[in-house]
Design a protein that fits this description.
The chain is α+β, with helices and mostly antiparallel strands and about 210 residues long. It folds into two domains: about 60 residues; about 120 residues, no CATH class. Strands 2-1-5-4-3-6 form a six-stranded mixed beta sheet. The longest helix is centred in the first third of the chain and has 19 residues. The termini are far apart. The chain has five helices and six strands.
C-alpha cells in the first residue's frame, strides 16, 4: 500500500482573478468584447438603462413587443448598480409610473373637455419614446388645431453617481399629426435653450436618487 499522498498540481498563471464587484463587472463586459475602465462603468450602465427605458416606451404598443426583455434588462441593471453602490436607475415599473404621471399631468392641464392622443418624441433626450397624452378639445392658440398640449417640460439628468446634474427639456408640439401614423410629434422648443449635451430622461423621483 503506497503511503505517498496525492497532490493536485495547478497550472501556473499570472492572471489575477477579479474578486471585487466592479472588477467582476468589467471582466464580464470584456468577455463580450466591451472593454471598460473603472471610471466609465457607472456611466456605461446609466446609458444602458436609458436606452432600455426609452425602448420600453417606444415599443409598448407594438405587436410582439418584447416586454420581458426590457423588463429584465432594466431590473438587472438596477440590481447591479445597487451592488456597485451607484445611484439607482429605473425598473420597468418605474418607467411606467413616470409615463402615467406625465399622462395624468396632461389630463389636469387639458381640463374637463379633453381627448386622448398618442404622441412621439422625434429628438432630444426622450427621442423615440411614445406616450399617451391628453389635450383640450378646443384649439389652444390661434392658428392651431385641437390636439395634445402645445408644450411639454420634462425633467432630465446628466453625469454619473459622483456628479449628477438635474435639468429640463422643453418640447413643442408640431402643428399637425403625422399623416402616416396619426401620432402627434414633439420637437425641442427652439424658443428655449436646448438640454445640455449628454442629458437623458430623469425617470425616478428626486428622493430616490439623492438629487
Amino acid at each position: 500500500m503506497s503511503t505517498t499522498s496525492s497532490v493536485a498540481v495547478q497550472p501556473f498563471t499570472t492572471d489575477v482573478i477579479p474578486t471585487l464587484p466592479i472588477d467582476l463587472t468589467i471582466a464580464a463586459y470584456a468577455r463580450s468584447g466591451t472593454h471598460l475602465g473603472r471610471d466609465v462603468v457607472d456611466l456605461h450602465l446609466l446609458d444602458i438603462a436609458d436606452k432600455a427605458a426609452c425602448s420600453l416606451l417606444r415599443d409598448q404598443w407594438t405587436d410582439g413587443f418584447p416586454v420581458a426583455a426590457y423588463t429584465e434588462l432594466l431590473t438587472t441593471i438596477a440590481a447591479l448598480r445597487g451592488v456597485l453602490g451607484f445611484i439607482p436607475t429605473p425598473t420597468a415599473v418605474d418607467v411606467s409610473t413616470w409615463a402615467r404621471g406625465v399622462r395624468e399631468a396632461s389630463a389636469a392641464a387639458a381640463g374637463s373637455e379633453r381627448d386622448f392622443h398618442e404622441v412621439r418624441f422625434v429628438e432630444g433626450p426622450h427621442q423615440g419614446a411614445r406616450l399617451g397624452l391628453w389635450g383640450p378639445r378646443a384649439p389652444q392658440a390661434p392658428d392651431t388645431v385641437p390636439g395634445p398640449l402645445l408644450a411639454l417640460e420634462l425633467v432630465t439628468e446628466r453625469g454619473d453617481s459622483s456628479d449628477l446634474e438635474i435639468g429640463v427639456a422643453r418640447y413643442r408640439r408640431l402643428k399637425q399629426p403625422d399623416p402616416r401614423t396619426g401620432q402627434w410629434e414633439y420637437m425641442l422648443d427652439r424658443d428655449h435653450p436646448f438640454p445640455a449635451e449628454g442629458s437623458r430622461p430623469h425617470f425616478l423621483p428626486a428622493d430616490q436618487v439623492g438629487a
